[in-house]
Amino acid sequence: MSYSLVTAAVNPQELDTAERARAVVGSCHLPGAQRVAIVVPTLREAGNVVVLLERVRKALDPTGVEYEILIVDDDSRDGVEEAVAAVSKSDPRIRLFARRGKRGLSGAVLHGWMRTDAPIVGVMDADLQHPPELVPELIARTLSGYDLAIGSRYAEGGGVGSWNPIRKLVSTAAVWATWPIQRSGFRAKDPMSGFFFVRRDCLDGVEFQEDGFKLLLEILVRARVGSVCEVPFEFGRRYSGASKANLKVAVDYVKLLARLYGWRFGWRRASAEQPRPASSLE
Ligand SMILES: Nc1nc2c(ncn2[C@@H]2O[C@H](COP(=O)(O)OP(=O)(O)OP(=O)(O)O)[C@@H](O)[C@H]2O)c(=O)[nH]1
Ligand SMILES: [Mg+2]
After folding, report:
1. What is the whole-number distance in angstroms between the Cα of residue 52 and the centre of ligand 1?
2. 264 touches ligand 1 (CB under 6 Å)
3. Tens digit of pLDDT for each residue in 191-205?
4. Is any atom of ligand 1 closer than 6 Å to the C-beta of 155?
5. How many other CB atoms are there within 10 angstroms of residue 61's CB atom?
6. Which of the listed residues 48, 106, 127, 168 should we mutate to test ligand 1's pocket, taking the one with most ligand atoms within 8 A of CB?
7. What's the mean pLDDT when you consider all of the chain?
8. Residue bearing the CA closest to ligand 1, atom 23
9. Which ligand is nearest to the CA of 126?
10. For 40-66, what is each residue's pLDDT tens digit?
11. Ligand 1 centre from 41 Cα, in Å?
12. Mean pLDDT throughout 103-132?
């Protein structure tokens, strides 16, 4: 089966995100032969989730792709469970998983991915900083043969939005620190993105850490990904609610980096470190 993608026909630099999405939707029908599961991890995101679901469905429904959206909530108790339940009553493609007594973004994503057998799995934030209108294009890239399609703030044409200079500097340094451990030929400019789709068979058998915020980096370093593409987008403003990025996220990132450096270069102590149970998709 072949997928003729509009991305080959248009110059992405000339279009903004919404225009690109419309172009993808308008020019190709994405057959439902390959199901897609999108995990949306939530921690106190009740004010965002209904709008997010509406916009993702509006972007994807015209494409014909067969998809499901899995909301994985970590006991927010802010009304998100009721809000999602109300939507899923009329649309069984929307499923809610409420984790009790657990926290962690990567763990929540893995929790969702382990509860679907879709051959393509993805993730996006709940707060609408990841434009739902870009989802069809990312899925189209995986259907056209890429193992991993990343919504990228650092690819040409993308951007980090209204971040202050300190956050920009920290983020640039954090990306720079990944360069030695990313596999040559498959390096991503935005290895910290929380917006990506991946072919599940690339993940089989790899045990991922449940701690932390940066699952994509671990996938780039450890999974059997044979082709990567980055689709630029401008990181939006949080629609509602508050950021969950805090000092613990930074500390977890440094720990993850240490583990990945250890794994990549065979440093005994670091690679032997297994602080928390890891999850495999098998
Ligand atoms: N289930 C679950 N979701 C989480 C957890 N921590 C963060 N999230 C979700 O992960 C997504 C990203 O978190 P954000 O707080 O938006 O982090 P960010 O986008 O890096 O930071 P900001 O730009 O400041 O918003 C959001 O959908 C959060 O609700 C967690 O411990 N459990
Ligand atoms: Mg956010």
Report:
1. 14
2. no
3. 999 999 999 999 999
4. no
5. 13
6. 127
7. 87
8. 243
9. 1
10. 999 999 999 999 999 999 999 999 999
11. 7
12. 96
Alpha-carbon 152 to chain mean position: 10
CA distances 169 to 163, 234, 245, 257, Å, are 10, 17, 16, 18
Where is 152: in which H helix or E strand?
strand 148-152
The pLDDT > 90 percentage for the chain reads 74
Ligand lying nearest the CA atom of residue 153: 1
Nearest residue CA, atom 11 of ligand 1?
125
Does residue 106 have its Cβ closer than 6 Å to ligand 1? no
Neighbours of ion ligand 2 (CB under 5 A): 125, 127, 129
For residue 68, count other CB atoms closer than 10 A to its CB: 18
* DSSP assignment string, 80-144: HHHHHHHHHHH-TTEEEEE-SS---HHHHHHHHHTT---SEEEE--SSSSS-GGGHHHHHHHHHT
Domains assigned to the chain: 6-243 (3.90.550.10)
Phi and psi at 233, nearest 5°, equal: -155, 160
Q: What percent of the chain has pLDDT over 70?
A: 84
Considering only CA atoms, which of 73, 222, 245, 238 is closest in space to residue 162? 238
**How confident is the model over 124-164, as pLDDT tens digits?**
999 999 999 999 999 999 999 999 999 999 999 999 998 99
Measured from the CB, is residue 209 less than 6 Å from ligand 1? no
Assign 266 a pLDDT band (cuts: 50, 70, 90): confident
126 in ligand 1 pocket by Cβ < 6 Å?
Answer: yes
